[in-house]
TrEMBL record:
Protein name per its UniProtKB record: DGQHR domain-containing protein
Biased composition regions of type Basic and acidic residues, renumbered to the chain: 69-80
Domain of life: Bacteria
Pfam families the UniProt entry points to: DndB
Region described as Disordered: 57-80
InterPro entries: DNA_S_mod_DndB
């Protein structure tokens, strides 16, 4: 740390004017205003760095081969930097906000100069010969680097990136820091869908959750599985996969090119018709979530295929064949036919496809098991179409 004799700030002096002598003094070095703080028994500094500075300021030291000690963080994951660049291209191309998050790097405290200005505000002087070692963010750094030095620099050239700088030179501690930051719990798909952008698959799903009585108040929007005791039947992810099947016959299609409002309205109309006409769902559809009992929800999920994710997927794939692309609607007559199918798990329509009989089951009441494999779903849809006379 150092303290030089420069003018002290007063109410008539702007921050630029106050800092100007420092930048003049160190114009040959890289200077960044920073915020000092302590965390986990270490001194840290938060700085914001222009995109053009990152390629020469940061360096990654990933492990190589089968030797974790050959670097400070994990080996690079092939293709991950490309995914990050693709994300930026897509968001910028649509003129939408984007975010990469804070990078973390470490440096020996003797390799930089920190001028404390008071109130934990400081100026960080980093000599040109010094590089910061990345602890977390090597793929983001690589993506930024390749965009800046390539032909697409205009995508991010006017952006800054925050760096948390840890004043640490112990190699083993740097590896430990990477491990600690990498132990974030993987987010459930339901939560990711619930917080997804209001477009395509996610946008339609969010509309259905509020406009379709079968889903309203009966959908788990955070966790990966719906809790029967909370009278929840579906998850946001179940419905999202159903939506993609209804419009693309593919549960993973994000439907980026489909307009939310007209698509949602067409699907709402079809679903409300289907759930109100099917004898297997009408009693659940007509009751508000508060009116349902735990026993009713449990019985529905246990006995009706439509109380499972795989049942919704099959319904979506059948509705795909009921969609009139010229009129942008699901044909009511075909929706009626689908509603007349026997959707109980004991139905011969599903036997040997997604419902498999178990011989000598430990629980006689559950003499079957449900499978959601791609091949089983394909066979189930084919069986249903055969019963409908659509083949």
């Amino acid at each position: 740390m150092s303290s030089l004799e420069f003018p002290q700030p007063d109410q008539n002096l702007t921050l630029d004017a106050f800092l100007s002598p420092y930048f003049a003094q160190y114009h040959r070095e890289r200077c960044y205003p920073g915020l000092l703080f302590r965390q986990g028994k270490r001194q840290m500094i938060q700085i914001n760095v222009p995109a053009h500075d990152l390629p020469t300021l940061l360096q990654a030291k990933p492990s190589t081969g089968n030797d974790p000690d050959s670097g400070k963080n994990r080996p690079e994951v092939k293709g991950h930097a490309e995914e990050i660049k693709g994300y930026i291209r897509e968001r910028v191309g649509k003129n939408k906000p984007w975010i990469l998050g804070t990078l973390t790097a470490n440096i020996h405290p003797d390799d930089i100069n920190i001028i404390e200005l008071g109130r934990d505000i400081c100026l960080v002087i980093i000599p040109r010969k010094v590089k910061l070692d990345i602890t977390d963010g090597q793929h983001r750094k690589r993506a930024i680097h390749e965009l800046i030095v390539g032909s697409e620099s205009e995508l991010i050239s006017d952006n800054n990136f925050p760096i948390t700088l840890v004043l640490e030179d112990d190699f083993n501690q740097c590896q430990t820091d990477f491990r600690d930051m990498a132990q974030t719990r993987q987010l459930d798909q339901t939560l990711l869908k619930s917080f997804g952008e209001f477009e395509g698959q996610v946008g339609i799903t969010k509309v259905l959750q509020t406009e379709v009585p079968m889903f309203r108040g009966k959908t788990e929007k955070i966790k990966s599985a719906p809790a029967t005791k909370q009278k929840l039947i579906y998850t946001t992810n179940y419905i999202a996969k159903f939506v993609s099947c209804a419009f693309a016959n593919d549960p993973n299609d994000e439907l980026k090119n489909i307009e939310v409002e007209p698509a949602a309205r067409a699907l709402i109309k079809a679903l409300n018709q289907f759930f109100s006409e099917s004898i297997h769902t009408r009693h659940i559809f007509e009751k508000d979530a508060q009116e349902l009992t735990v026993v009713e929800v449990s019985d529905f999920k246990e006995n009706c295929l439509l109380g499972r994710s795989v049942g919704l997927e099959i319904l979506g794939r059948l509705l795909y064949f009921a969609y009139d692309r010229t009129m942008s609607c699901f044909l009511p007559e075909k929706v009626r036919q689908i509603s007349n199918l026997d959707w109980s798990k004991s139905s011969h329509v599903w036997e040997g496809t997604v419902v498999l009989s178990s011989y000598n089951p430990p629980n006689v009441a559950k003499s079957y098991k449900i499978t959601a494999s791609a091949n089983a779903v394909r066979l189930a849809v084919s069986s249903a179409k055969s019963h409908l006379g659509w083949n």
